[in-house]
Design brief:
The complex is a heterodimer of chains A (about 300) and B (about 425). Chain A is an all-alpha fold and about 300 residues long. Chain A has 15 helices and no strands. The radius of gyration of chain A is 25 Å and the shape is globular. The two termini of chain A are about 30 Å apart. Chain B is mainly alpha-helical and about 425 residues long. Chain B has four domains: about 50 residues; about 180 residues, MetI-like fold (Orthogonal Bundle); about 60 residues, no CATH class; about 110 residues, no CATH class. Chain B is built from 18 helices and no strands. In chain B, helix 2 packs across helix 11, helix 3 packs across helix 10 and helix 7 runs antiparallel to helix 8. In chain B, about 30% of the residues are buried. The chains are: A mainly alpha (about 300), B mainly alpha (about 425). At the A-B interface, helix 1, helix 2, helix 4, helix 5 and helix 6 of A face helix 1, helix 3, helix 4, helix 5 and helix 6 of B.
Chain lengths: ~300, ~425
Amino acid sequence: MNPRAYFENFFQRNGRALGTFLLAVVSVWILILILAPQLFMVDFSFRHNLPPAEIGGAKDTYTLEHYKFMVYGSAQSQGSYNTVDLGVFLRTLLAALFVTMFDLAICYPVAYYLAQSASGGWGRLMVLSLIVPFWVNEILRAFAFRILFGTTGVMNNMLMAVGILDQPYDFIREDVALYAGLGYAFILLMIFPLYNAIESLDKNQIEAARDLGASWLRIHFRIVVPYAKPGISSGCTMVFMLTAGALAAPQILGGPSSLWFTQLVFQWFNQGQNWNRGSAYALVLLISTIVLVTIAMKIFKVRLGDIGK
Amino acid sequence: MRSDKFLQWLMIAFLLAFFAYLFGPLLIMSVTAFNSSQFPRVAPFDCFSVEWFNVLIQDTDLMEGLRNSLIVGFGVVVLAVPIGLAGALMLSQVAPRLRAWYYTVVISPILIPGVVLGISTLVFWRMLSRSLGADFLYDGIFLTIVGQATFIAAYSMLVFLSRLQRFDAVQEEAALDLGATHVQTFRKVLLPFLKPAIGSAAVLAFLASFENYNTTVFTILSDKTLTTVLASKVRYGINPSISALAVIIVFLTLLGAVVFEIMQRREGARQKESARIARGEIKTRSKQRNIMTEPAMITLAVITALGLGSVYFAGTLGVEDCKQVAKAEKRALSQKRVKERQTLQMFRRAAPSKETGAGTATAPKVKAKGTEGYQSIFAPSTLEGMAGQENKQEEEKVEAKGTEGYGNIFAPQNLEDQVDSDKKTE
């Protein structure tokens, strides 16, 4: 279909006024809000950090300096690697992976129960109570975990009263608070894709497997998990992307010696005053998370179209 | 069969643990809001008090942030909901070859980290405002609305898509055949059908905007929203007025959930009635009450009012007396400590001076560990500086140290500096 015929068709179907409105609004969204800023950021990250007066001048050329800085560090320490930033980068990705697995492990049973066993009012109450904590501000949730895990916090008091600990354990320095808080933040985004996927599974399949003598574990690994694979990958993708890109929880719950990669980005913008470098770091984060998710989907043979269902 | 029973119990235990994880932190935070102690904690619980709510209301930073958050939320709803609607309507009309691409592009803002969205919005609009010479484009509130709307529009689109799946296009065709214009069809057929979705998309958009931090922290520039104020407060020393804010938000959320449930039941009853009319069991629809006169709503309002009233009275009456008692107890405790210390000191003086030296050397270690303010009081260096009966001063010191249970994150000096600068800004 040639474009002109296509547009004629479009306007015929929607009428002139409505068609114009739809087209205008959607193009503003896609072009000005989504694509242009992203593309400009890519361009921006390849340029020198210059004062406003010199932008567009002779010095305004393309450069790889910001990406080089992330790998090799500053020019003085040329040759050796920028171990601090690379370490933070790897740690963030690994920790995000860990949080994703943790969420999957704790959400799968709940989603299964909700989808297959809970019914009527009880099920609705459970869904509602899953949603309520999600509407409490992200910062306040992190704050709650700080109260919980502080040195004089409830967790320490409780463990010491029971006698498991004899002196306060520093949950914040050991990043326990951070992982607990991050896992907490995205529970809902794991449960609902899982729930949607498992709900449509025919109960008869499980019954049949049980009648034929399959063990409980076998039923899950041979029937439920393969069936729910799109939901699992959808939930894992969302949780992984959001955890790797989280900023508030690491700022509030992170230990003194551990940084999250987004905090480096934040530092280049605020303290470092090097927006170009911050953009380069942000882009590295974006691309590496997308690449990881794509690889994972290839390995587990899930198509992109299954995600977001 | 026995293993089935066992699994069932295991499941119940797991669900309990899961919901404890979900609600425990919020519950504990809520309790700390009513403790008169300077530091948000559950135990020791000094006095039941609502003073932190007063502190909260008098906090001008937070109130300014709240005002901006409301403005941004309103702007995002106005911008994102129509975009989401247009995006959803467009999806079915894009040429089939382009559909997958279109979907990938419009859904991508949900998956792109909020930090990246904030940064790209910031650098793009700064460039635009510079090259156009239009300074008004480079404004914190405006940029935040634009940045948030980019991904919140995608949320709204998903809401509209799920509603549109149930739309029967025949209705539209019928209206067009009967001579309605496209705009009329849109207004009289499609929009009424989408009305519930518009409502939920607007609520969703507002809430998502209200609680957003990752994008906002970059795009807000020198302005502030509720979340950015909160984040900076939480990072530099905490006090229970933040818990008080959390209590208000949790309370409003619960209230919203209950009202939502009541409305769902009403809708359910209405649909049952329609079904009965269709079956011919009844002739006419019973008159729908105004939602405010629904018995469940009245009960809810009465319970809420009574609850709030009793909390207010319990939290204001007798708090001063209770505080006096608590203070006296603390003073007695610290006097006891000083006495113990004096005996210790006398004992030390008697001992060779070598030992005192060794004791001083260990003092910084204790501090660096920073597990608890109380520990450093026992360090000999503190002791020596405290010759005599400076009871009062010592008590204040204990209090101040007590408020920095997180001394390990922010070195004590930092915190004290922060307190100073806070005072200055006040």
